[in-house]
Every structure is written in structure tokens, then in C-alpha cells.
Protein: Protein kinase domain-containing protein
Organism: Phanerochaete sordida
Amino acid sequence: MDVHIPPNAFSKIAQTVTLGGRNETGELQTVLFQRATGARNPKLLFGSPIAGTEETRLPCHPQPSLGNLDLNLSLGAKLGRGSSGIVFEATMAREGTSEELLSSLPPLVVKISYLGIRAGVAHDAYYYDFMQAIQGVSIPRCFGYFDAQLPTGTRLVHWTDDDVLADIDNIRTHPYTDMQYEEPTDAPEDLDFQQFDESRCFVSILVLERLGGFLPIGEPLSDSLLQDIDDLYDDLAHMRVWTSDIRYANILRAPQAPPGLPGRVCPFHKRAHEWRLVDFEHGRETNASLHWHKAFRAGWLRRILNNLPLVFYVNPDSDI
Ligand SMILES: Nc1ncnc2c1ncn2[C@@H]1O[C@H](COP(=O)(O)OP(=O)(O)O)[C@@H](O)[C@H]1O
Ligand SMILES: [Mg+2]
């Protein structure tokens, strides 16, 4: 597929995604999501000597013109959750999905924003799009960002699951607030960042390629694995993005191919990476040089990678 179609093509080609829901009286109903646009965080800009002069960012693939294909997804097992949403396995239902998508999409997941707290997933969507050139290289392929206004009382089918309801209620008591940053005083100003408009009955979803499991715990990590992880963050640096969120739960194994799509050769490291990074809710475009990116990430990565073989407290929901 990648040979002919840009990795992010389906965010333009698919216009709607449908998921199952239940109305106030418990009846099953379909929830229709429409293609939407992500929102960026303020840029993280520096003066000299941190600002880089390298021309690093790869041009994006030419985008296809907007299409009107439909994707009908059924949610499966819950794979994870974090501060911006809950991630489920998703499978395409034959009925309601355009033939072109049935024959070309890999195994998928859907990341669903918490009700009324869409900003995290909207930011995520923006950076997946911005880093389109490294989708399938060091971040998953992203097949689009969609939103829906839920009729009063409607819940997505999986929100009726007790475990998920507990997640949602838990997170509602900690509404999304963006991280606070000290902006450097000599930085050029970021004049046009987008404020995200929250409306409580809206929910957003991100459709992503399904990845594998977490880094191994309690065993030595090989030099090539350590190098691969550092290289993933180096790819982000080349794309001029700082994640602000380097953590264990955001590093996942590349999809197994087949049934997944094979990884693309990295334009910067000239080989296919075995791992991928997710979660760009707190992403920031930055003008920091590659050298400063390496310095910024070193301590965060050491904290995770040195602790894993020692089986220190490592939990997907924890800070490391
Ligand atoms: N593409 C994916 N494939 C498989 N699992 C995923 C994928 N994306 C996320 N996950 C799982 O869901 C968890 C939460 O996703 P993440 O994007 O980090 O959300 P949050 O911003 O809420 O932390 C991840 O830690 C991981 O376990
Ligand atoms: Mg996360």
C-alpha cells in the first residue's frame, strides 16, 4: 500500500467512521464520526545557542484530494489508557466499509477521547499529521482523526463496560489541562497557536495502525535495542518535534508483518526500526538543534532504560 499511497492518505480519503453506541434506553445505535482537524500546542522556541540551523524536516508526501469513503469499526479489547484517551482494538465491519479500505488497511486501533475532554486527542492528531513523513517508520501510521456530537444520554458501547466506566469517571475528576512550560525569555514569539474549543458532548477518535507490546522488563536490553529507542527520538528531533512525554507506556513494538504492514526504511538511519513511539498530546514544534534534543532526552531515557532490567516499579500508567 505504501508504494502507491501516502501513509496518511486515509485521513483524507475516509470521510466518516461509524462505531456502535447505546442510547438512553439502552438500545444499540450507530454513532457517525466526521473527518476533523487537529489542533497544535504552542511552539517551544529558543534563541541561540539552543536553536538549530539544520534544515532537518522532511517534506510531507503529496496529499490526496479529499475523498468520501466510509469506515465502519467494531471495538474489541481495551489495549491501554492514558491522560487523553482509551485505546481499543478495532476491526472493520464489512457492512458500511468502503471496499478500498477493506482491502488495504492493516489491523487497527481506535483512540477515543474522554467525554468533554477532546484537546489531548486533538493535539495528538495534529502531530501525527505534522510527522506524516515518519509514519510507519518511528510512529504508527495514522488513518485519521474524526469527531461526533453524541445525542444526550448516548454512550459508546464499550463505555458500558465497568472497567472503562471506572477509567472515565476517574479521569473526569482530573480534567485535561495542558502542561505548563516556562518559555525561554529570549525566544522568538509563537504568534498563531490554536486554542482548542471544548464542548462537553463531543467525542473524538484517532484511527491508528495496531502496534505490539511494551519493552521487556527484568532482562538486559541489548545495545541495538537501546540504539533503536534513541534513534526513534532522533527521528522526532529531525521532524522538529519534542514530545514532552518520554515514558515507558509510549514506546511500543512495531507491528508484526503480516498481518500488519512492514516498517518503512528510516530516512535518517537507513534501516527499519523495530519499535515505535505513540502519544503526542503534549507535542511541541521546536527550533532546538539535534544536539539539544539529544541532551534533553538523555536523562528521561536513562531513567526508563536503566530501570527496566532491574524490575523497578514499572507500570504503563506510571511516570516512567
Ligand atoms: N497504535 C497502538 N497500538 C497498540 N496499542 C496502543 C496504540 N496506541 C496506544 N496504545 C496503547 O494505549 C495506551 C494509551 O495510548 P496513548 O496514545 O499513550 O494515550 P494517552 O495520551 O492517553 O497516554 C498506550 O500506552 C498503549 O498501551
Ligand atoms: Mg501515553
Summary: The chain has six helices and twelve strands.
